[in-house]
Amino acid sequence: MAELPRLLADAVQCEPEGVALTRGSTVVTYTELHREVVALDAAMGVLLGPASLVPIALATVLPELSETQTGELRRALDELISSLVEHRWSCRQACAS
User: Considering the entire predicted model, what is its pTM?
Assistant: First the structure.
């Protein structure tokens, strides 16, 4: 979890408008999510620590995730992690070509 901010920053470098997550008709790009992580880090990074930045940023850009009792935030975070790992591999492959 502590590596998520770095993985997100890498995704922004490779594909800034890439889709980080979708919920219904709402699409969140890597850049939008990264912008929120950077703002949180500047405001409260010392208190939160790197592992908390991305989950809190997710709940900020998609407030409905934090309003449910069904573990939706955890599912969204798992989706994001999968997306970032896949994106990282894709970007490395593209750079190697």
Answer: 0.86
